[in-house]
Amino acid sequence: MKQFMDKDFMLYNETAKKLFHEYSEDMPLIDYHCHISQKEIFENRRFNNIAEIWLGGKNPDGSYFGDHYKWRLMRSNGVDEELVTGDADPYDKFLAFTQTLEMAIGNPMYHWCNLELKKYFGITEPLTMENAKEIWDKTQDMLQNDPSLTVRGIIEKSNVKYIGTTDDPIDSLEYHEKILNDPDIKFMVRPSFRPDKAINIQKDGFLDYIKKLAASVGKDDLDSIEDIMDALDQRVDYFKAHGARATDHGLDYVPYEKCTIQEADQIFKKAKEGKKLTKEEVDKYQTTLLLHLGRKYHKENFAMEIHYSCTRNVNKRMFDLEGPDTGYDMIAKSNCGDQLAAFLSDLDQTNELPKTILFSLDHNDFNLIGTCMGAFQSTEVPSKIQMGAAWWFLDSRDGMEEQMRSLANLGLLGNFVGMLTDSRSFLSYTRHDYFRRIMCNLIGTWVENGEYPNNEESLKKIVQGISYNNAARYFNID
Fold this sequence. Notes:
By secondary structure, the protein is α/β, with parallel strands linked by helices.
């Protein structure tokens, strides 16, 4: 029987061990998409205890911070919501989560949490109800006193070179400015442009948001779709001046319903009058704006990330109580492959297709994406159109292996830009370690089976590329 989570954890052959330990393990990290707070990075936040950093709580505005992956598991274990997102005592929350984690056999969360305890706190025993108090005391003491366990210390300890946060176009980016001007911060933190609220014309709060977007460019309101385009262009320029290299779009599905600017403008004016839009009208407005932004991204050499096939906030009762991003989302079946191809083709027709990374929450889309992206590659950068890493509900071993096998079957796995955390937790960098082990084991297995030659230079180039070098090239990180 193998020891639990030893140095060769998830590495099941000698080639895999060599690839990981010699070529991947010590490479820096590029976390090109996440949801951590740049304010907390600048202020170098120190957490009071492990419950705070794992499970979070409420922000002053009533929204929540924390890890909705963990919240979902706790609810599945019948834990009262007061112990999940409520105001219960932090130690009681920790015990409720510990009890949940013991039941999480086969879930990546079990591995992630124990990897975090090992990497950041030197705890090699798996967390159980029997040792929970001892681990609570040790982690609390270290979080409150160890200089390497502030937010910046954790990032440095994790060997992170680049962090791409997720930022709204109207954000002031004041903390990004402060980070850029702080000589003590050695790693890069850059904003990523996420204009979902300007695109989601069908959702509540759209008109209020348009006024805020107007204010961000010194106007009282935006009266036409051309005004919206101009405002977003100005904000893209502002983000570029702050070092942005990427954008992100969280879409229910990829729309493509072509129309004229005049027709899209009439749809916007109809929404401003408070009238209900048809699905076709929503798709036309969104397509017009997305195409405009895609061309702007290409001009500025931004990578466009598209995340789709998620149905959000499916539990209306809990959404009304707790709001978005609290763990009530699910995988959607979007069937938008033809629209995705038409969208990319429209931009490609005028040579204005930006670097694009496509993420679907439905694993059945992997092969669709793999074949679609192969139709739109160019000489701008190797594998300009990328299949994104196994995302959200898919970032398990099975999901990661399936994504990489699909990419290997249909494209060039050796050019893959690799893993990201997509996380709100500063301890989540162990997910890169988890991914790298799975990646090295997959490649090592192919070599051991005689399916790829045991050529050290070729394997080193592939493994180090997927671990770090490909993303550094793709996002222009020095």
